[in-house]
Amino acid sequence: MTFRKTALALACALHAGLLSTVHAAETDEALQLDASTIVGQADGAAAERDSYQAKPSSAATRLELSPRETPQSVSTITRAQLDDFRLTSVNEALKYSPGIAVQEVETDRTYFTARGFDITNFQYDGIGAPFVYGNLDGSIDTAPFERIEVVRGANGLMSGTGNPSATINFVRKRPTATPQARIDLTAGSWDQRRIDTDVSGPLTDSGNVRGRLVYAHEDKNSYLDRYSREKNVFHGVLEADLSERTTLSLGHTLQKTAADSPMWGALPLYFSDGSASDFSRSTSTSADWAFWDNEEQRTFVELEHDLGNGWQAKGVLTRVEKDGDGRLFYVYGTPDAATGLGLFSYPSEYEDDNRQWLADLYVSGPFALLGREHELVAGVSGSKSELDDISHYGQGIGTALPPLQDWRGDYPLPAFDFFVDGSSFEDKQKSVYAATRLSLADPLTLIAGARATWVDSEGESYGRARSREDDAVTPYAGLVYDLNEQYSLYASYTEIFDPQTRLDASGDRLDPVEGRSFELGVKGELFDGRLNVAAATFKTYQDNMAESAGFVGGRQIYAGVDYLSEGYELELSGELLPGLQVSAGYTFVDVQDAEHRHAKTYAPKHLLRAATTYRLAQLPQLKVGASLSWQDAIHRDVTLPDGSAGKIEQDAYALVGLMASYDIDPNWSVSANLDNLTDEKYITSLYWEQGYYGAPRNASMTVSWKY
């Protein structure tokens, strides 16, 4: 409660300060703000009110390029889309992004895949480091973000490794040059209660100091038995113009998530005879005493200086502190189809502490060569991540449990002193990178770059050494040819370098993944640039990817496997007709092993995502919209208790959502959302042999005030 009161007090204080600034502006015509800043912020805010169009981004190359100028697949989930469909978590938002599969293996642990492979590179304003364990614990709230950018395909130039899935870039909300404020109050299914506040504007009469404060609180129960979750989010940024050419920014984001009775692991998806299990959607394996709390604090300081002649220098230093604390209950085994017996307990207490430093310094600008103007960016970056975690395993591991149909979560709280294990390791990464955009001719540009990366790790994780030293140079090249004023062809090539920590049968660490990725496509800007369209085909070769090869002496071992991933994508975003916004994408991807057999069967081959809204011309206060997410059938091969082969299957399914909003007056509006309109029952993921069912039909309503 202290956190909530403090954040709300700060919001009120900043709001009051902004209102006084507005009053001063109305009564004192001598108020002078930077004209270019005012125009950019105000015009941009008006233009983006309803827009689903992807905006220029530097996430792929650090050069600020429009989607058409970028020789890679780029998508954007805009603030308008996040607000229209009440996408308050990153999991929900990425379910709307073309080509991204959200693998919700548990209630509070998620993997993300694209083009058949795990996404491990998440960035904030272009700065980031891979997940420590390749997954997300808890739930990242979208309140601090202006938009979410997705660069599909290998992105070794900006991420340090050439993981060929995707890079997710969160673009944070920054202070605005004009005052604005907004409050959203939401109520929904399963006792959902949420408040969002966002206040921004100048803090001095001259406008040389600006601030923005975002606070969100959410508390909700669940369709899952016993499960509930509370989130508190604070995001604040200050900007100060130290001179006409130098701007200093300081920001801090805090998110606290508290989950009661979360699932650790999930439901058994098949019986011992190989038949599919079919539990109620509300079924949970969690105990009533289980909890999982996660906290992340992310602080950054950023200095940007105009060097003149179009050149800029920018330095960013980020400190990340992540803490997790959980008392969890895992259920393992394969139940009998007739009796439901065959499940056993595995209680554990878990704590983790992760500290990260991230630094990036670069310069960018234009230069002239051979009578033409080109662009260049060059920089250095480094990161250091220290992680300590410990697991206290409970007494009673292996206790037989009743059938899940009779499970009420009333397992006695054990003593967590059976045995202890954990991790303590440090990862360091240093990089030097450069990229240039060369204008070879009026219709032809070449984007070329390279990143030299040094990786150094030491320590242990659950009895396995994580020590490693690797280095590589990852080149990048892309060509863009303008066919006319609307369409461009592009081709790109990236090499892959991804160090691994998995061990083989001899106890040696596997060599890094290496490979190469190709992409070829066409992009267009239609209707005076209001609509982006794109079509792409891609092919990726990867050698020595770690795949489980069984157990030796109780230790899981891995072997390097070669993969070929190929497919194509279609996408459009923006204003299709006056008042009609659309974001849609279709992806086909096929992942094959060295024997040309279909691999990664848990990831859909076909994925369709679409969202659209329409503001009625006859009644512009009313906006209506719909969303669709469809994927084809997936499966996972399993080994049954008797040694025979089995299969878990999830048929193709579609999820439909509806929304409507109405502007009562310039300040007040109401909106309603309905998710899973057809009440589809589906398994959220087959990434593991366990899983659980997605949410049934649910609804929410929001009242909004803005200034």
Automatic annotation (TrEMBL):
Coiled coil: none
Main location: membrane
GO molecular function, one term: signaling receptor activity
Domain of life from the UniProt record: Bacteria
Signal peptide: 1-24
Residue span of region Disordered: 49-75
A UniProt-annotated Pfam family: TonB_dep_Rec_b-barrel
Alphabetical list of InterPro entries matching this protein: Beta-barrel_TonB, Beta-barrel_TonB_sf, Plug_dom, Plug_dom_sf, TonB-dep_rcpt-like, TonB_sidphr_rcpt
Bilayer topology term: Multi-pass membrane protein
One GO CC annotation: cell outer membrane
Domain TonB-dependent receptor plug: 67-166
One BP term from GO: siderophore transport
Keyword Iron: yes
Residue ranges of domain TonB-dependent receptor-like beta-barrel in the record: 275-677
UniProt subcellular location: Cell outer membrane
UniProt keyword terms in alphabetical order: Cell outer membrane, Ion transport, Iron, Iron transport, Membrane, Receptor, Signal, TonB box, Transmembrane, Transmembrane beta strand, Transport
Family as reported in the entry's similarity comment: Belongs to the TonB-dependent receptor family.
PANTHER family assigned to the protein according to its UniProt record, in alphabetical order: FERRICHROME IRON RECEPTOR-RELATED, HYDROXAMATE SIDEROPHORE RECEPTOR FHUE
Name the UniProt record assigns to this protein: Outer-membrane receptor for ferric coprogen and ferric-rhodotorulic acid
Protein's organism: Geopseudomonas sagittaria
Source organism phylogeny: Bacteria, Pseudomonadati, Pseudomonadota, Gammaproteobacteria, Pseudomonadales
